[in-house]
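User: I'm preparing a small set of examples for a lab meeting where we compare how different chains pack in three dimensions. I only have the primary sequence for this one, and I'd like the structure in token form so I can line it up with the others. Please keep the answer compact; I'll paste it straight into my notes.
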Amino acid sequence: MGMKLFGGSGLSHGDRIEADGYPVRLSVNARARRVSLRIDRIKREVVATAPSARRLPEAVAFAREKADWIAGQLADLPSGQVLTPGMTITLFGVPCELVAGAGRARYTPPSELAPALISAPDDAAFGDRVLRLVKVEARRWLTERTEVYAGRLARPMPKVAVTDTRGRWGSCRPASPRAGAAIRYSWRLALAPATVADYVAAHECAHLIEANHGPRFWALVHGLVGDHAPHRDWLRREGARLHAFGRG
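Assistant: Understood. Below is the structure token output for the 248-residue chain.
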């Protein structure tokens, strides 16, 4: 949907406008009591919320009034991290050195004598090659944990995929008469501590039984990983940094 300037008419949920040069997404939430602004740190955007479509012009005016606040909040978001030889990243909490090397890009797991390594030719595609290997490792690790939790819940192993979603760390489609179950994860979970990524795997597998977030769902999660609050808090705190990873 195209960008709209202030003062335009016919505003609706999902429209994108500008506040002193900063993009703002408009949102209608019937549960909201007033017009408000927030920063979506994962999607790296400003959201102006109104209780109804009729009050969206108020949200536009409020965003324009708070342009300085918006600028400060966006400036505080983590900057992109370009991947270069010599850097050390973490994969599920384990240090992994990025090194320049001839030939095909490859990932070497850690051993008692050496850290994990990702080696790739030192050229303009170095970062892209590193990210491809990180995604492969993410799919391997998350598939293993999914198999563990699906087994504990006595459910067939779902199909697993990794994507670059910004809104969710994972999603689950329970089995139906027409299709088997499927779980998608953000590959960026590979950059989180193993306990955090493990919680997300348990969370999505619990959806194989309970498709909602009711008490029975959280009881399942608690039975798999115990207290989930520290892991959710970590993702809220560090999610923006994970989403800045690998972006120039």
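A couple of notes for your slides: The first strand starts at residue 3 and ends at 4. Residues 76 and 193 are 23 Å apart (CA to CA).

User: Perfect, thanks.
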